[in-house]
Amino acid sequence: MRLPFLALPAGWLLLGALWSPAAAAQPDVAPVTPEQPVVAAAADPTAAPVDAPPEGAVVSPPPATTKSPDGWTLTVGAKDETQKIIAPLTTAVSSREYEVGGVFTGSMSGPDEDAPPRGVLEVGYQIGCGIDMSTSNGVSLTGTAGINSSLGILGTDVISPFPEGVLPGVGGNLGGGITIGLKPGIINMVKVTEKQFVGADPWVMVAGFRIKIDGCVGESFIRSYAVLTRSTDVSDAVLAYYGETKKV
């Protein structure tokens, strides 16, 4: 017995050949691994702690420098400045008091000479006051008071020249005023020290120094200053440094 031959188109055979491997292939899937927990790095106990700036710290401007006619270079500046506002002892609203500090340095370099350089390093503070009451009368009160008396005669005329009555009277007055003496602002110079030196690198250290002014109304301003002077028998070379202005 013969079985009938089943003829398939060539396209179906080709499609089956291509489909079978694709269906049997497994997709490439990366293995899943559990995530590792992120652990923060422990602080190093041996690391040096970061120091906080002191109370009232002030940023010092760059040093001032100049060159004298005889070839010497002068430099003056400051570092580690502090200007802290404190309550005045008088508790008056017109008083200002500060606690200041800093290191003020000078430097001089120039031609070789037989003797070392010499001079003066002056350090202090300037306090500006918006309205000054220290050189005026300040606040003053004025007042006046008085009593006036009077006496009147009633009922006198041509027919009857004699008075028919007497009318006494008493009056008084009272007055007062207030006067405030104000002047435009002034700058107070407070010199801390004046160091005479022999050498090329003078310095002055100020710590916990308190300065105050009285009779100041409104805003006040404070800044440091340092004046370096190189002296010879025939000349003086002067260089000034001014710190940052702080408003109160």
From TrEMBL:
<keyword id="KW-0732">Signal</keyword>
<protein>
    <submittedName>
        <fullName>MspA</fullName>
    </submittedName>
</protein>
<dbReference type="InterPro" id="IPR036435">
    <property type="entry name" value="Leukocidin/porin_MspA_sf"/>
</dbReference>
<feature type="compositionally biased region" description="Low complexity">
    <location>
        <begin position="42"/>
        <end position="54"/>
    </location>
</feature>
<dbReference type="Pfam" id="PF09203">
    <property type="entry name" value="MspA"/>
</dbReference>
<feature type="signal peptide">
    <location>
        <begin position="1"/>
        <end position="25"/>
    </location>
</feature>
<feature type="region of interest" description="Disordered">
    <location>
        <begin position="42"/>
        <end position="71"/>
    </location>
</feature>
<dbReference type="InterPro" id="IPR015286">
    <property type="entry name" value="Porin_fam_mycobact-type"/>
</dbReference>
